[in-house]
């Protein structure tokens, strides 16, 4: 029998497994210039080691250094705004502050759409006085450490109130700088915050009720966090309850907001009852001013004071709350111009200058002095800092006003008569132009 042979051929099929390689998309916290390109550094951007917003890492607050609290619901009803300020992220966000071009984070270009500013109150325990207990007397107002005082925070960029629940704002290309490889988030990308303090009647939650209390409660009332891929804030979401969710604490929280250093004084006080919104001075020629003449207008201011209010410029103590009044130059440009011309008296100013003093079309060599009804020139406040006395611009309110003997419901009206006088500044030559200045009457505990 003839042998039969066959050939078995193995067919081998080769398969290729294609695995996509994804770009690394983790953000990093930037703490040195080694994370920046030479081009970025040449453009003025910088980097430095920075500590996040821990409970004691807050910056300085710009809110009024003395907050006056009256126990009278007639003089100061619930909802009365006690003080407010817009705190800048760069200066108040943390101790030491940031430069505007300091880079805080670096992320991949593919991270666009995943980068957020997160913000909330500090409801985390013990948060009863820093953002956990809401009061129904103020919209989105929360009980504070201080009796009869509620606070409210507003994100300046979004216009939304802070709450105990995290909120978010997406960063866009308008907020960052980028190159061919990365997105860089500067400190200036983060939002400022408006801080408001209100009088409330409720005494359900508080820890301090002293006549005079310098705020030293260590915990902040609000915070900002950065959310980005790869960070420990990546799973922090809008709506999370900050009472229990504190992802990223505190390395990736660039800012916290605090009331440290604000002095709260409670007692019998005064409020502004009536004042002129505008005081018009008659037109006068530059030649007349140079010859020593002046242009004057009279005006009056009324206060409503509690019967037992103490009239004094002495610093309020643990047992007494002293009330003073003054005229505040509330335009930084006018303060700077007067200071440059030497129109000062210790911590105060002697002249009120035009808000745009030195600009084209504005009269120069002239300023406004304020006189009391006895003809004595008053020093003006250059800031709302208390306890600087007459030299700084504070006067015991009874020294500038007279009782109208109209006590009603424990309140008395006091009225003061004043003169605004446009005069040549000694040593300066008057030039023609307009004069438009702003002055604010202030009454405060000392």
Helix content: under 10%
Count of discrete alpha- or pi-helical segments spanning 4 or more residues: 6
Major β-sheet strand ordering: 3-12-8-7-6
Shape assignment: flat
Total DSSP E strands: 28
Radius of gyration (CA) equals: 30 Å
Low-confidence stretches: 1-24
**What would you call the structural class?**
mainly beta
The averaged pLDDT comes out at 92
Q: What characterizes the major β-sheet?
A: 5 strands, antiparallel
- How much beta, percentage-wise? 25-35%
Total domains: 2
Distance between the termini: 128 Å
Can you describe what's shown?
By secondary structure, the protein is mainly β. It has two domains: 28-264, no CATH class; 268-445, Fimbrial-type adhesion domain (Immunoglobulin-like, Sandwich). The protein has helices spanning 38-42, 89-92, 286-290, 332-340, 389-392, 397-400, and strands spanning 28-29, 66-70, 81-87, 103-108, 116-121, 134-135, 141-143, 149-155, 167-170, 177-178, 182-186, 193-199, 212-214, 222-227, 255-257, 263-267, 270-274, 295-306, 310-311, 322-328, 344-345, 348-349, 366-372, 380-381, 395-396, 402-403, 411-424, 440-445. It has a five-stranded antiparallel beta sheet with strand order 3-12-8-7-6. Strands 17, 18, 23, 26 and 27 form a five-stranded antiparallel beta sheet that branches. A hairpin with a 2-residue loop joins β21 and β22 (348-349). It is flat and about 70 Å long. Mean pLDDT is 92; it is low at 1-24.
């Amino acid at each position: 029998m003839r042998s039969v042979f066959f050939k078995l051929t193995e067919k081998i099929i080769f398969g290729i497994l294609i695995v996509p390689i994804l770009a690394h998309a983790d953000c990093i916290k930037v703490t040195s210039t080694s994370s920046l390109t030479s081009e970025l550094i040449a453009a003025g951007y910088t980097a430095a080691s920075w500590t996040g917003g821990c409970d004691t890492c807050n910056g300085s607050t710009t809110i009024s250094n003395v907050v006056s609290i009256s126990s009278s619901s007639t003089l100061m009803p619930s909802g009365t705004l006690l003080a407010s300020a817009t705190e800048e992220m760069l200066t108040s966000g943390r101790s030491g502050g940031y430069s505007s071009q300091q880079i805080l984070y670096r992320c991949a270009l593919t991270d666009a759409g995943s980068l957020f500013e997160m913000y909330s109150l500090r409801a985390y325990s013990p948060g009863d006085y820093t953002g956990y207990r809401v009061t129904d007397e103020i919209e989105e107002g929360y009980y504070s450490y201080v009796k009869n005082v509620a606070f409210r925070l507003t994100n300046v960029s979004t216009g939304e109130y802070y709450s105990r629940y995290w909120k978010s704002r997406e960063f866009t290309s308008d907020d960052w700088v980028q190159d061919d490889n990365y997105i860089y988030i500067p400190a200036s990308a983060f939002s400022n915050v408006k801080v408001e303090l209100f009088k409330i009647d409720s005494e359900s939650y508080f820890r301090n009720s002293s006549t005079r209390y310098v705020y030293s409660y260590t915990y902040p009332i609000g915070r900002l966090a950065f959310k980005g891929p790869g960070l420990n804030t990546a799973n922090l979401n809008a709506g999370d309850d900050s009472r229990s969710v504190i992802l990223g604490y505190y390395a990736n929280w660039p800012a916290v907001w605090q009331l440290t250093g604000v002095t709260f004084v409670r007692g019998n006080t005064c409020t502004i009852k009536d004042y002129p919104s505008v005081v018009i001075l008659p037109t006068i020629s530059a030649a007349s001013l140079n010859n020593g003449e002046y242009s004057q207008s009279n005006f009056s201011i009324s206060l409503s004071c509690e019967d037992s209010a103490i009239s004094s410029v002495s610093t309020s103590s643990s047992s007494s709350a002293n009330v003073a009044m003054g005229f505040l130059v509330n335009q930084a440009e006018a303060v700077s111009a007067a200071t440059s011309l030497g129109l000062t008296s210790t911590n105060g100013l002697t002249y009120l200058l035009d808000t745009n003093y030195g600009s084209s079309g504005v009269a120069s060599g002239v300023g406004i002095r304020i006189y009391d009804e006895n003809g004595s020139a008053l020093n003006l406040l250059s800031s709302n800092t208390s306890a600087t006395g007459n030299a700084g611009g504070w006067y015991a309110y009874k020294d500038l006003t007279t009782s109208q003997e109209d006590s009603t419901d424990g309140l008395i009206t006091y009225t003061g008569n004043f003169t605004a006088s446009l005069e040549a500044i000694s040593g300066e030559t008057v030039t023609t132009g307009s004069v438009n200045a702003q002055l604010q009457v202030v009454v405060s505990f000392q």
